[in-house]
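TA notes, week 10

Several of you asked for a full example with nothing omitted. So below is the full record: structure tokens for the whole chain, then the designed sequence directly under it. When grading your own attempts, check the secondary structure regions first.
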């Protein structure tokens, strides 16, 4: 009998804590009125990037045809595949750290 009474008391206590936590979580927040100083109006800055000077006129680069770019990429891939195949066939330290003839290397 005492165990049943003790279980009921603990259950009611847990229920009361849960109801209090739920009530605290769902009540609407009322912001306290705080006195914030008025910020002065800021004038919009002119559009510029790191400088007050006018941007110089940059000539337009000529467009390269897509076929030329594709041919350069295909040539680069062929050179890299040939270098990889020669390394796999005969791996040496010199082939691993050798310079490539591809124009795309920095």
């Amino acid at each position: 009998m005492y165990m049943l009474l003790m279980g009921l008391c603990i259950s009611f206590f847990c229920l009361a804590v849960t109801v209090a936590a739920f009530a605290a979580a769902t009540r609407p927040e009322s912001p306290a009125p705080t006195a914030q100083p008025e910020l002065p109006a800021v004038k919009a800055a002119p559009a510029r990037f790191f400088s007050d000077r006018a941007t110089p006129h940059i000539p337009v680069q000529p467009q390269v045809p897509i076929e030329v770019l594709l041919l350069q990429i295909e040539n680069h891939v062929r050179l890299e595949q040939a270098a990889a195949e020669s390394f796999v066939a005969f791996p040496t330290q010199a082939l691993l750290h050798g310079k490539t003839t591809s124009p795309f290397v920095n």
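The CA atoms of residues 48 and 56 lie 12 Å apart. Use that as a sanity check on your answer.
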